[in-house]
Amino acid sequence: MTTASGLALPTKSKACATERQCKEGEQDMAFETLTIAIAALAAVAIVTMAALRGWQGYLALRMQEIGRADDRPGDGVPAARIELADLKERVRQLEAIAAGVEL
Length: 103
Description:
Oligomer: single chain
Order of helices and strands: HH
C-alpha cells in the first residue's frame, strides 16, 4: 500500500513501536508491581508488630490486676465470698449437731 507521495505504509501496526520500548514498558510494570508488593508487606509487618505490642501490654495489665487481687484477701470474687459464708454456716450446723443442740 502506498500514498500519493510514493511512501509505503505499514500493513500492520505493532503494540509497541520498537521491541526495546516494549521491554522497557514491561520492566517498568514489573518494578511498579514489586514496589507495591514490598510496600504492602511492610504495612502488614507494621500492623502486626503494633497488634503484638498491644497484646503484650494487655497481658501485662491483666497480670498486674491478678497480682493485686492476691494481695487483698477481702476483695475476692463475690461468688467466692458467698461460698465461704455458706461453708461457715454448714460448719456451724455440723457443730450444733455434734453438740446435740437442736436447730
